[in-house]
Model the fold of this input.
Amino acid sequence: MKRMFNQIGVVLLISLLAITIGQAKSNAQITWHIANGPLMTRWDKQVSPTNALPDYPRPQLVRKNWENLNGLWDYAITDPDAPEPSSYDGQILVPYPIECALSGVMKIPDPKDYIWYHRSFEMPKSWKNKRILLHFGAVNWQATVYVNGVEIGSHTGAYDGFTFDITNALHSSGSQSIVVKVYAPIDNNDIARGKQTEHPGGIFYTPSSGIWQTVWLEPVPRTYISSLQLVPDVDTGVLHLKANIKGDNVDSAQVLVTPVEGDKKLETKTCGANEDAEIPIPHAHLWSPSDPFLYDLKVSLMRDGKVVDNVRSYFAMRKIAVASDGNVMRLMLNNHFVFEMGVLDQGFWPDGLYTAPTDSAIRYDLEMVKKCGFNLIRKHVKVEPERWYYWADKIGLLVWQDMPSCFNSNLPPEAAAQFKKELHNMVVGRGNHPCIIMWVVFNEGWGQHDTRSLVSYVKNLDPSRLVDDASGWTDKGVGDVIDMHHYQEPESPKPEMNRAAVLGEFGGLGMRVNGHMWTNESWGYAGLMSQSARLERRYQQLLKMIPPLIKNPGLSAAVYTQLTDVETESNGLMTYDRAVTKMNPKIVADANAFRFPYIPVKTDLVPTSLDRPIVWKYTTTLPDDNWYQVNYDDGAWQSGPAGFGAGGVCPAIRTPWTTSDIWIRRTFTLPNEIPANLVFRVFHDEDVEIYLNGVFAGSAKGYTTDYVDLPMTSQARAALKSGQNVIAAHCHQTTGGQYIDIGIVDASLNK
Done:
């Protein structure tokens, strides 16, 4: 009996030692859960340690065998001089950034610290005698990778994928260990970081440090297809293809390429490894937003008549160019002018930050863009995972792809070389996607440097696409377009002899939706409207201004700001959580097609002239002191429709007003039942004072950039009566643009 108890004691001791050793290596939380973020999305329910972005991450180079390493990893945050930790702080759900709720951590590391990741895996037995590749979709910003304690390599850059051959570091069997050390100096102005900042606010947002795209393993043969280059040539009816081959005895390998059109296999073409080839595509079915047709592609690597490697891919036949339509230079898709009506997309999520919670969430965003009648997305200073572009290819959306910005225009040589390297990797890494039609090298003046040289570099790297030297502000006269930003209303630069005119940003109409906000703070470029109908009507006003610009001076594209709210920024067509679409997609789609059905707004008791001109009596000469009284004789005043104004940000100037002062009056009729809670709906630039039936009713100093609600005095409300009433107002202007228009709304319905 004593011997039996001793044996049990040994077993228990061994178990306790095993537990202790395990805790020393990974002091991870026993129960992982999504952190309690400030705002979440409906896709969170689909995210778990066994279901973290499980979709195949590389749609244009597909193999059957692979292993997804997304899921729970151990993590730790250490001082910069610390070695690999002997114990970890907890578990993190890869590939969600450490700062986001979906990671389960939701911490912003000190920019001087290192983030460590660790996990183990076992290789399938069927992978024996294969080379094993370890892929990272993206890690922000500098990653060093160790396998079984051996340093495999390092990579610098937040947005481009990288791969290591880890074969020689693997054990012959059993558990294998991966450790990733990450350095992410987020607010370093010398690095490409887009809109990430340690101090979020305004147009800059919470950072996404560490691993933020899929990590995965792939077995390949000793000689294998590492990548494809696919460039369509619509005019000659061929696909230019290069299969990049790595491994042993590459020179003796051949590549078989078979395009597939629907269910029909086209002619198989044989070409050499790492050689340019022309694949005939007779009577090509062209890709466009209205008909996003994709060809399938089968590529086989052959040696001695045997298949060594197989991959599947896809491509599209489409052409983008700048050419004259006989009048001005235009953006041409498949040799025809198609006006590009676009939306700006920041690519942020409240629960995942840089990382969408699921693949279906990515698809939802893009399908909503299409539903709203846009044919273009400007992907703003961020590079997405490949599956984002895959869905854009399939759904049929044109993409202007921004290079993520740095913020130092005088980069030291090493930083300038790194920026150029990341620019190269973006163009090459996303270059097979037909949706991308233009590379945007710089946004506004952010970190702009060596513009002419970098534009030339990108044009030589990818002559099949257009290049925008700088979207907004700091055009250097190079590239394929001249691009301006103009808020709120659209404007157009003048097309040039060799460059088309585009509007890279406009709009920014804001609306706060309670219950769907990141914080209590919110703002919009055009202020914040209070209801969808107001937003829809203002959107219509902006879009009505575009057709004349297409005609003269010759606008080719316009990009509205923006697809979704982001943190405190409330300019989105959708709320940040994608739960509310602020405007009716049909109304937006109609406006984007330049159709403008009338939208009634139930709060309008006395309408403004935003949608329909309302005639007022007016004078710009100082009137008598009793000009605002009911019985004042305004017969000598002029008549004209509002709004009155000149220059500036004005929605509908129907009567010019260029003097320093204007006085306006009109009569209006009220129903028998007058709502109790009334406010003025006013666009004033600058100071305004208003009277109702001879009673002072309200005033405001300064100017607005859109219609705002102005309180009505209780005395003026009491003076209102059913039947005929008189409203009178004075507006005083000092400098800049000027404008005045007034209505009355029922504030109780204005929610």
Notes: Residues 341 and 374 are 5 Å apart (CA to CA). The chain has nine helices and 45 strands.
